[in-house]
Amino acid sequence: MEPLVLANELVKMRPFEPADVVPVFELASAKEIAENTFVPHPYSREAAQEFVDRVREQWSADEAYVFAILDKATDAFAGAMGIHPEGTHNSATVGYWIGKPFWGRGLATAALRLLIRFGFEQLELNRIEAGHLDHNAASGRVMQKANMQCEGRRRQALLHREEYKDAVWYAIIREDYHRQKSVE
Fold first, then answer.
1. Are the C-beta atoms of residues 41 and 31 closer than 8 Å to each other?
2. Alpha helices (H) along 61-157
3. Residue 89 burial by Cβ neighbours in a 10 Å radius (0-12, 13-18, 19+)
4. Rounded to two decimals, what is the model's pTM?
5. CB neighbour list of residue 100: distance below 8 Å, 6 or more residues apart
6. Nearest-angstrom CA–CA distance, 119 and 11
7. Helix (H) and strand (E) counts for the chain?
8. Which pLDDT value is given to residue 111?
């Protein structure tokens, strides 16, 4: 797929560029990111380079579409959000992280809404799902605000930092997306 930009009043989302390595390193290095995601900690500049190279390759191969999230007000790099299609079932999984300086500003919700629209309208998916570690309730609120429905808790489903943790999963299906869109 050709590179594209998604935008709304709060965020601009675009494919990653080589220059994003430094801001990825600076934001993803925070311990709070590692506590809520599978980003390694400590996080090295080399890991940031590998991440940017990998997501650029995935985009080129149409394997996944990982966007850099920019705060539209300042054009500052704020985080990453990707959609990973699975062709057999016409579904995809979403993953994301937002840098700590940008928490609580609605950027993740705004980005997730854009990514859901991209998934249903451009990728023509039937289902989009996302999960979060049980202790990361803020991520669950992002999913709820993006009109995803909680489908349940998977007990000790994820090995995170050498400890089994529960995961909470949300999803939205095409039918619900179009129903919600028609009332907006």
1. yes
2. 107-121, 137-145
3. exposed
4. 0.95
5. 27, 30, 32, 33
6. 17
7. 6, 8
8. 98
Using CA atoms, how far residue 46 sits from 18, 22, 106, in Å, is: 13, 10, 30
Second CATH level (architecture) for the domain 6-183: 3-Layer(aba) Sandwich (3.40)
Per-residue pLDDT of the chain (184 residues; tens, 9 = 90+): 898 999 999 999 999 999 999 999 999 999 999 999 999 899 999 999 999 999 999 999 999 999 999 999 999 999 999 999 998 899 999 999 999 999 999 999 999 999 999 999 999 999 999 999 999 999 999 999 999 999 999 999 999 999 999 999 999 999 999 998 887 7
What are the two backbone dihedrals, phi and then psi, of residue 56, each rounded to the nearest 5 degrees?
Answer: -70, -40
Vertex 24: Cα angle to 23 and 28 (nearest 5): 120
Q: Are 111 and 5 in contact (CB under 8 A)?
A: no
Closest CA to 100 of 16, 36, 146: 36
Domains of the chain: which residue ranges? 6-183
- The amino acid present at 171, given as its one-letter code, is A
Q: Where are the alpha helices (DSSP H) in 97-166?
A: 107-121, 137-145
Bridge partners of 96, per DSSP, are 81
| Cα-based torsion angle of the residue sequence 157, 28, 53, 6 in order, rounded to the nearest 10 degrees | 90
Residues 6+ positions from 40 with CB-CB distance below 8 Å: 34, 47
